[in-house]
Amino acid sequence: MEPSTATVAATKPVPEPSPVTSKPATAVSSRLLAALKPPPRGEDYTILQALVSVDMLLLFTATVFGVGGTLTAIDNMGQIGESLGYPPRSIATFVSLISIWNYLGRVAAGFASEALLARHRLPRPLILAAVLLLTVPGHLLIAFGVPGSLYVASVAIGFCFGAAQPLILASVSELFGLKYYSTLYNFCGTASPVGSYILNVRVAGRMYDQEAARQGAVAAAAGKGVTCIGVRCYRESFLVITAVTVAAAVVTAALAWRTREFYAGDTYAKFKEGN
Hints:
Layout: H1 5-11, H2 23-36, H3 47-51, H4 54-75, H5 77-83, H6 88-120, H7 124-144, H8 150-176, H9 181-189, H10 191-221, H11 235-258, H12 260-264, H13 269-274
Helix pairs in contact: 4-7, 4-8, 4-10, 4-11, 5-6, 6-8, 7-8, 7-11, 8-9, 10-11
């Protein structure tokens, strides 16, 4: 007995879908992966390649929390001096010291990092990690309010803030190339205000207001303005800033470890070949 037409149709294998239908999706994913695949360090990255790279993520994170902490100290130096009982003349001196040592830090970091790179092949991110660690004593002096310590803290924080800038920007040009340097320069520039917002507004500002509100019950009853006075105004916030600064230095050291082979070679080789 021959099988019926319905039985033959039921047992007939269903043809697999043509691979042509999956080609467009495969092609798109292949192009995307090719676009995101970074070139060797030191070559010209595209903007997208640089923004999604691990090196940029580490550098951006370190800038947010390392430089953001120094910006918080600089922005609040006048209020810190007032809270710790310094006279207006001393507070003006702190601002001047920060400006002077900011400039000296920029100059010194440029010369020193170039010399250390040329003679000892020290990765520039490693020098940046050392600079961030140098800010830690300044933050701790503010946190514990040691008498007369704001002079030293102003020098340390101003110098380190200035020194960090050329190190960050030089690292960007060396690791990601110069083709899109202006865009990447401005992208890294956004890290500082982001860090300042997080640490200044959300951390230091909020903790200062809480302590001022705690102290302000008597002042409000007397009809006076509320100003936070004492070491407690900034102690907790600068302990937090100290912790995240150390974390930023560790992140920068991780970037130095990742790029150690690149910096062990001649970072200017492609420019010499071009000549």
